[in-house]
Design brief:
It is built from 6 helices and 19 strands. It is an alpha+beta fold. The chain starts with a strand and ends in a 5-residue tail after the last strand.
């Protein structure tokens, strides 16, 4: 049974859905899904789950890390350079220290308004589809968390600054570029973006898209590697029949209720996922080799 993760280093110009289609063809599988959509212009880490691993995506660490460049002095309708220009404004004199100070309000948990051109649903329709139809929406702000925000470089002649951002799922770096530009009084938009980490995977684990064209597709990362951040429960040989039938399992670990737990079989391979149902009891949520 094919079950595992592939980390693609997505190139620019291809959608996340397009990458999934390429993976389906390379491995001869229909059951393939990705974790964390990347816009076509964005490059970098795109985790892809194959087989039953698609059901493990909700259990992975949702934080992501990006390196991006922001163009100050320009606003666009999509909040990046892919969109149509709306306004150009002169740059105020900006020292490195002033930029560093301007970044401070964006650290931590903040309210962030998604771009009008985004995949957010509006009355059952994607916001980007409405924008293409000439009906851009003023989307409501939502809570996101920016864990780390570092100023890496500043080019005052070109008005370009480079940032590294570690953030929660749902954070838009395009919105960060727009809002930072507004705070500085000159406007801004995202010039380029590369994702370096997502769902616990990094660029060092990634393969280029061209690797899918080889005679043998790349080996998959085992599910247990992706779930290493969660507690584990090991089944004994006598536990296995009950587990396969979906029966709750005794667990000697003191864990909070509803904690996700990785269940490992006697052979050392992933048997499934469970949640702490009550003190000392695990309730199966995903059984990979279910009986019947």
């Amino acid at each position: 049974m094919t079950c595992g993760f592939l980390v693609l280093d997505k190139p620019a110009g291809l959608s996340s859905h397009g990458c999934v289609s390429r993976v389906r063809r390379a491995y001869g599988l229909k059951r393939v899904g990705h974790g964390g959509t990347l816009d076509p212009a964005v490059t970098g880490v795109l985790p892809i789950a194959l087989g039953p691993a698609t059901r493990l995506l909700p259990y992975l660490n949702g934080d992501k890390t990006y390196r991006g460049r922001i163009q100050l002095g320009l606003t666009t309708d999509s909040d990046d350079l892919e969109g149509s220009p709306l306004q150009r404004r002169p740059l105020p004199p900006l020292e490195h220290s002033a930029l560093a100070e301007a970044l401070e309000p964006f650290r931590g948990t903040i309210a962030q308004r998604p771009p009008a051109v985004s995949a957010v649903h509006v009355n059952g329709e994607r916001a980007y589809k409405l924008a293409r139809q000439g009906q851009p929406q003023e989307l409501p702000a939502r809570s996101v968390t920016i864990h780390r925000l570092e100023l890496l470089a500043w080019d005052p002649d070109r008005g370009l600054l480079e940032l590294e951002v570690r953030c929660s799922a749902g954070t838009y770096i395009r919105s960060l570029a727009r809002d930072l530009g507004e705070r500085l009084g000159c406007g801004g938009c995202l010039a380029s973006l590369r994702r370096t980490e997502a769902l616990g995977f990094g660029l060092h684990q990634s393969v280029p898209l061209e690797a899918l064209d080889a005679g043998t597709p790349p080996a998959l990362l085992p599910p247990l590697e992706a779930l290493a951040h969660l507690p584990q429960h090991h089944l004994s040989a006598t536990d296995v029949p009950g587990w396969r039938c979906g029966r709750s399992q005794p667990c000697g670990q003191a864990l909070p209720l509803d904690t996700a737990v990785v269940v490992v079989g006697p052979d050392g391979n992933l048997a499934g996922m469970a949640r702490m149902q009550s003190e000392g009891q695990l309730q199966p949520r995903l059984v990979l080799d279910a009986a019947g």
